[in-house]
Amino acid sequence: MKRITRVLLLILVLAFLLTGFAGCKKKTEKYIIYSDNAFAPFEFFDPETNKYIGVDMDILEAIAKDQNFEYEIKNEGFDAAMGAVQGGQADGMIAGMTITEKRKETYDFSDGYFEDGQILVVPVDSDISSLENLRGKVVAVKTSTQGAEYAESISEEYGFTLQYYEDSPTMYTAVINGTNDACFEDRSVVGWAIKNEGLALKTVGDVINPGFYGFAVKKGTHAELIKMFNEGLKNIRANGTYDKILAKYGY
């Protein structure tokens, strides 16, 4: 009888310990991810669903599902997203952000998930046909972007001045209404706007600075998030989800 009692007691102790360990298991972390708020077709507000949609939004959702992690998305704008990651308010960002050596000094990037590059954009009736025609002109750029960095690097050589904007739609409007003579923008983004929104713009010349977009975190942090993004990206490429997402937005 005593032996049975000891066995039962041991079982109860083991059950208690197992329950205790289970209760102490770390809860699934919810990551705070920042993004742009007007960079169609990668992220843009859809009034029908009352939420932000786009290539980046769908890729992040598919990867999170594949890797079983939770996240909260905040579409605050490109410059704001960069600041939030650097300031620790965000765990990461996905916002059509081109991977560059300069940015690698302050961010850790995932593998590239989309290739793009910048291109010169002018009003549809403009006679600007090359960089040489920009002398004496005012060129619009979006703050903190590769387009802005490229324009800054050649502005003195080609004799134009710059005006900065916080988002792409405002920049496009400034070019269309004549406030500015041209702008630099990612080819796929402005191409989508011209085709799907009927903007009175056209592109000039070839793509500049081709490169890949990447998911980014503050350098030296969230290695696990980069690892999950890369693993998830590999998996959704393999199972066809990635191609379906691009096709959904015309790529």
Supply the key terms:
D-Maltodextrin-Binding Protein, domain 2; alpha/beta; 8 helices; 251 residues; three-stranded parallel β-sheet; 41% helix
Task: Please describe the topology of this protein.
Blueprint: H1 2-23, E1 30-35, E2 38-39, E3 43-46, E4 51-53, H2 55-67, E5 70-75, H3 78-87, E6 92-93, E7 107-109, E8 114-123, E9 138-142, H4 146-158, E10 161-165, H5 168-176, E11 182-186, H6 187-197, E12 201-213, E13 216-218, H7 223-238, H8 241-248
Parallel strand pairs: 1-5, 1-6, 9-10, 9-11
Antiparallel strand pairs: 2-3, 3-4, 7-13, 8-11, 8-12
Helical residue percent band? 40-55%
Q: What would you report as the Rg, rounded to the nearest angstrom? A: 24 Å
CATH class placement of the largest domain = Alpha Beta
Structural category: alpha/beta
The profile of the biggest β sheet is: 5 strands, mixed
Poorly predicted regions are 1-27
Shape: globular
CATH topology of the largest domain: D-Maltodextrin-Binding Protein, domain 2
- SS field, number of helical segments: 8
| CATH homology group of the largest domain | Periplasmic binding protein-like II
CATH architecture name of the largest domain: 3-Layer(aba) Sandwich
Secondary structure tally: strands: 13
In what order do the strands lie side by side in the largest sheet?
10-9-11-8-12
Order of helices and strands: HEEEEHEHEEEEHEHEHEEHH
> How many angstroms does the end-to-end distance come to?
75 Å
How many separate domains?
2
Mean pLDDT: 91
Strand content: 25-35%
